Amino acid sequence: MGLFIIGDVHGCLYTYIKLMEHWDPKTETLIQLGDLIDRGNHSSQCIKLAFELQSTFKDQAIFLRGNHEQMMIEYLNETNNHLNWLNNGGVETLQEFKQKEVDPFFYLGWIKSLPLTWHNDHVMVSHAGFSVMSEDPFDVRDTNGLLWNRKPLLNIGKTQVIGHTPRLNGKPEYSAASNSWNIDTGAYRNICLTGIRMRKDGKFLEAISVPTDERDLTKEKVF
Predict the structure, then answer these.
(1) Which ranges carry the Serine/threonine specific protein phosphatases domain (predicted)?
(2) For position 184, which CATH number holds?
(3) CA of residue 30 relative to chain centroid, distance
């Protein structure tokens, strides 16, 4: 099976659906690298769609945890710095859940089960990547860990695929030094959502970018 890896969706449901039209479940494993929620207009529906896709396709549809899912978990569990989410899109996301009559607690167990990585012998996918500065990359509170890192990446001997830090030119970026791809192309910034197609041995095949659908954003949420 090949790989089809999608970057940060951030509530951009209609853009997400358009990009998903390029996924072939017969020949590819789908991997979404976190941050399904916040910023865009349709966080609850993005969660619902991901939940249903994984329920239908099982191991062929993989969803990872991003820092925004982590903030949501901490808010709903009232743990650690749980109020941080409200300042990072959580207020609007909660309002949207309420408006759509979707109970976020219904999906909480599933969100908490989302892994931090997907990998095989050649490819490592995570939200923010293995940093040169992280003492424990799997610590969900480590600012240089797999959920929060914005520092240069380590070359770990596999092709890393990450998101988290938007490429404002709308193009996925490859770093030869770390053998890594950043595929966050700023969907919530009204740029585009990107997926990359790879062979399971890490060979890059193509990038597919879909411009952000205007229904996914309001002017106030683009910054």
Answers:
(1) 64-69
(2) 3.60.21.10
(3) 12
Q: How confident is the model at residue 222 (pLDDT cuts 50, 70, 90)?
A: very low
Residue 5's Cβ-side half-sphere holds a number of Cα atoms within 13 Å equal to 34
Cα→Cα distances 208→39, 48, 63, 89, Å: 22, 23, 19, 27
Q: What is the pLDDT of residues 126-173, one digit of tens each?
A: 999 999 888 899 999 999 999 999 999 999 999 999 999 999 999 999
Structure-token pair, residue 172: 């996925």
CB 64, CB 116: distance < 8 Å: yes
Q: How many domains does the chain have?
A: 1
Q: What is the CA radius of gyration of the chain?
A: 16
Which residue in the block uniquely carries the two structure tokens 């590819």?
28
Q: pTM for the complete prediction?
A: 0.95
Q: How many CB atoms lie within 10 A of CB 139?
A: 15
Owning domain of residue 181: 2-221
Give the rounded percent of residues in the chain with a pLDDT score beyond 70. 97
Our measurement of the distance from residue 217's CA atom to the centroid of its chain's CA atoms, rounded to an integer in Å, reads 17
What are the start-end ranges of the E strands in the chain?
Answer: 2-6, 28-32, 61-63, 117-119, 123-126, 159-162, 173-175, 180-182, 192-198, 204-211
> Tell me, what's the pLDDT at 219?
59
87 Cβ contact partners less than 8 Å away, ≥ 6 residues apart: none
